[in-house]
Inverse folding.
């Protein structure tokens, strides 16, 4: 995985700040390929309670993580009981790595 231990810890802390103590973060996509270079950061924010404003939550988390990653593009996918489950969620859960 192309994230340092410091970056992983910062992402975890931000997830807890933005989404609460039950939030879990998974990394998926190109960041898991150690031989790759560059690319964005794909995160799945897993929540166990319904989300009132998912677009705002995803945007806020993405912006905060992007700042910690020196402006790197961050894509955030949300998983919550009240949100539609799409095939991309299956990919993120199957191929992703829990931080």
């Amino acid at each position: 995985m192309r994230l340092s231990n410091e970056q992983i810890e910062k992402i975890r802390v931000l997830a807890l700040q933005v989404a609460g103590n039950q939030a879990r973060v998974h990394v998926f996509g190109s960041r898991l390929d150690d031989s790759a270079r560059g690319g964005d950061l794909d995160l799945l924010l897993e929540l166990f309670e319904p989300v009132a404003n998912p677009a705002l939550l995803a945007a806020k988390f993405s912006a905060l993580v992007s700042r910690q990653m020196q402006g790197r593009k961050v894509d955030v996918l949300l998983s919550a009981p009240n949100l539609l489950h799409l095939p991309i969620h299956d990919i993120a859960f199957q191929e992703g790595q829990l931080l």
